[in-house]
């Protein structure tokens, strides 16, 4: 019986984990469905050792490796448990991060980087992370209610970046959406019998984005969906930087190279040209510069209002890596703001004040310190964005300091010590002097947390 069962299942790869899992395996015929038989004589209970990944591998028709999840029940009947790390969402997160790192790798020339692909990888990883959390919540509810089993979703092979799933499509599908928008602009030019002069092309881009597709540009970060490219494409609601990226991508498909630079809090773009005076000539009541950038260049309170052909030529043009970095920095700022919503005015670097200079607001009546209450999912999303930003700028000490502070707020003290120690090696002397006592405090917090975990394990130990 045992040998028959073993011959009907693929060989699984198991690691060094010592945990044991009871798996109820059905003695099924080759043509039968993957479900537990109601007959006790047709079921066999086997105890196997497994690691967190219970995966089966086989080869497809083209010889490529495909990953399937082992559907198995761990309970005596209705309840199903499945280790989190074997879910498709985890695989998507790992692959999306890997593909992002490859896209922005310093081995690639800046001109060969696709801003859209890189940001779609960011969206795919974050969407998979949130889907994983939702899945865990659902499993917990079903486990509490002792309800029926839920299906374990399998996925096909993901050998290329374009195959990564994202909100009902794959990355290739979202790239096709950008191609479609560019074709709509071309159709608009043909329908109006307009030539390919630059002002008319940019006006046609505005016509398609603002009128046909009802795009809305929000100057203030409000909703995280406005900062993810796939959501921007589908809904039309976007932050200022994401609208600029949309404009760059659409114009690139029309053969127009757009460049940009930071001006204060704004990121301004314009067509690459050797004649900057042409950008400020008025067409149909507005300059080319205003057609592309909107109201921010027409607002007297904005620094962009005072720009002219001379000052524009002196701006430092942002590279594609810089633009991706600006989008990631906005994500960090947005997710931190949402994570610390219950703590008005809490800055990421607030704890860097001297250790003995604790304000009254941070101390409870009983004298104990009061840790800020933060939203864990938003905090984790901020950390993920910070990790990607460090891939782009690994030697930026300020970014590494902020990353270390995010880890501190997440109570990952060991990792925070490591990041802040690296930061101190690159930071200016005055910044290193501020960080040094805080890092010493983190060492103590790490030791304290390890002692608490040991004490907790001793209390749970059975004599």
Walk me through the structure.
The protein folds into three domains: 2-163, no CATH class; 167-321, no CATH class; 342-359 and 372-460, Alpha Horseshoe (Serine Threonine Protein Phosphatase 5, Tetratricopeptide repeat), CATH 1.25.40. It contains 15 helices and twelve strands. The chain has helices spanning 2-7, 88-103, 115-145, 171-191, 198-212, 229-235, 240-253, 276-279, 288-293, 309-313, 320-339, 376-392, 397-409, 413-426, 429-460, and strands at residues 20-26, 43-49, 55-59, 65-69, 165-166, 169-170, 216-218, 237-239, 258-263, 266-271, 282-283, 286-287. A two-stranded antiparallel sheet has the order 1-2. It has a two-stranded antiparallel ribbon with strand order 3-4. The longest helix has 32 residues, at 429-460. The two termini are 39 Å apart. Mean pLDDT is 76; it is low at 1-62, 64-86, 152-156 and 355-369.
Describe the structure using short key phrases:
SirB1_N, 3 domains, two-stranded antiparallel ribbon, disordered N terminus, mainly alpha, 463 residues, Protein SirB1 N-terminal domain-containing protein, Serine Threonine Protein Phosphatase 5, Tetratricopeptide repeat
